[in-house]
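It is worth pausing here to work through a concrete case rather than discussing structure prediction in the abstract. The textbook approach is simple: state the sequence, then state the predicted structure, then interpret. We follow exactly that order.
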Amino acid sequence: MTAIEIREALEKCYPDVTDLESSIKYSGFAHEHPLIAIGVLLISSIVLETTAPSKLARFTRYSERFVRAVARNMEISGLWANDKYDFSSWYCANSCQPRTGNFGIMF
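Step two, the predicted structure:
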């Protein structure tokens, strides 16, 4: 799975967020919605099994500054520590069978 595939899946799942006309209207230029970018980054950390900003920046092609800002927030929240993403609060591996989500990513 690539960052492009993750982005496309999120955009397909949340088409209202990726309305380029709205982004132009509100900010004056077309851009990716920040929530899509954050989603791509967080799912990428699961796919790559790392929270290392340099690796995530290379994979997603987001700036390392952006990746480090998200990483810092995740660390402060206690979700990223020691190069691991603690997704145990929302992932129920023991009580649920792994499934393909609405956007085709295996969780």
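Step three, interpretation. Helices lie at 3-13, 20-27, 34-48, 53-60, 64-76. The longest helix spans residues 34-48.
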